[in-house]
TrEMBL record:
It comes from Planctopirus ephydatiae. NAD(+) binds at residues 13, 19-20, 70-71, 98, 168, 197-201. GO terms for molecular function: enoyl-[acyl-carrier-protein] reductase (NADH) activity. InterPro entries: Enoyl-ACP_Rdtase_NADH (IPR014358), NAD(P)-bd_dom_sf (IPR036291), SDR_fam (IPR002347). It catalyses: a 2,3-saturated acyl-[ACP] + NAD(+) = a (2E)-enoyl-[ACP] + NADH + H(+). The lineage of its organism: Bacteria, Pseudomonadati, Planctomycetota, Planctomycetia, Planctomycetales. Pathway: Lipid metabolism; fatty acid biosynthesis. Its EC number is 1.3.1.9. This is Enoyl-[acyl-carrier-protein] reductase [NADH]. Signal peptide: none annotated. The gene is fabI. The active site is at residues 151, 161. It holds the Pfam family adh_short_C2. Substrate binds at residue 101. It is an enzyme of class 1 (oxidoreductase). Keywords: Fatty acid biosynthesis, Fatty acid metabolism, Lipid biosynthesis, Lipid metabolism, NAD, Oxidoreductase.
Length: 273
């Protein structure tokens, strides 16, 4: 018996085995959860690379429900959650692991972000959580749990994170409002603020190598986190171990977020003359 035996849920945003969503998937599966997955449909239906990639990962886990869904399309969201309900019945949890910004807007200064780039970034990275929750709560058992993924750049300025920092700030606020709205049904909504992990998405962030090095140097634990670390915390938030936790942003970052300055041993001391 695992912590999630008998629980059913959906994971949105799995891309490959480097994804944080994959680290979460592995831990939820190990704890006995029954999982459904969505994937972003390829522009060329004749070459469904994304679907094949996701299926290759999750079918060995026994996943039977692998559903196309473009979160920018309401009709896709409606069809996806109808298919999830038909396949799984009522669900107990949702993992929202979706974020995107056009590369030019992500790499450029915030003040230079295009109007369209801002709209797309907020639509996919923030509004998608609202749209997903709106549909998921209709088929969710009371006492369910919803998590999304954020980063410290939503709280503090992280050079290079740029427009995505604004998106994560809005996402964390959305978590609090959603938690308040769904609390009477004992449905919990939380965020995991993970430290930097080398993924397909993070590779587009300017300065990711410096971010990784800083966590090794500055965090209290002097190390980066892994997708496995995030997966373990996801199990906690999605299981009955956290029934009193909602509206929370849980930092899984080796404690980096508490530091106001580098540790004294982070840099060699200057020799006195």
């Amino acid at each position: 018996m695992g912590l999630l035996t008998g629980k059913k849920g959906v994971i949105l945003g799995l891309v490959n085995d480097y994804s944080i969503a994959w680290g979460i998937t592995e831990k939820l599966h190990a704890e006995g959860a029954e999982l459904a997955f969505t994937f972003l449909p390829d522009k060329d239906p004749a070459s469904p690379k994304m679907e094949r990639r996701v299926r290759k990962l999750v079918e060995p886990l026994g996943a039977k429900h692998i559903i196309p869904c473009d979160v920018q399309k309401d009709e896709d969201l409606d069809k996806a959650f109808a298919a999830i309900h038909e396949g799984l019945g009522n669900i107990d949890f949702v993992v929202h692991s979706i974020a995107y910004a056009p590369i030019d807007d992500l790499k450029g200064d915030v003040h230079a972000c295009s109007r369209e780039g801002f709209k797309v970034s907020m639509d996919i990275s923030v509004y998608s959580l609202l749209a997903v929750v709106h549909r998921a709560q209709k088929i969710m058992n009371d006492g369910g749990s919803i998590i999304t993924l954020t980063y410290l750049g939503g709280e503090k300025v992280i050079p290079g994170y740029n427009i995505m920092g604004l998106c994560k700030s809005a996402l964390e606020s959305a978590v609090e409002y959603l938690a308040a709205e769904l609390g009477q049904r004992k449905i919990r909504v939380n965020a995991i603020s993970a430290g930097p992990i080398r993924t397909l998405s993070s590779s587009a962030v300017k300065g990711i190598d410096l971010m990784l090095a800083m966590y090794d140097t500055m965090s209290p634990m002097r190390q980066n986190v892994t997708a496995e670390d995030v997966g373990k915390s996801a199990v906690y938030l999605l299981s009955d171990l956290s029934t009193g936790v909602t509206g929370e942003t849980l930092h899984v970052d080796s404690g980096y977020h508490v530091m106001g300055a580098p540790p004294l041993d982070a840099f060699p001391a200057k020799s006195s003359s």
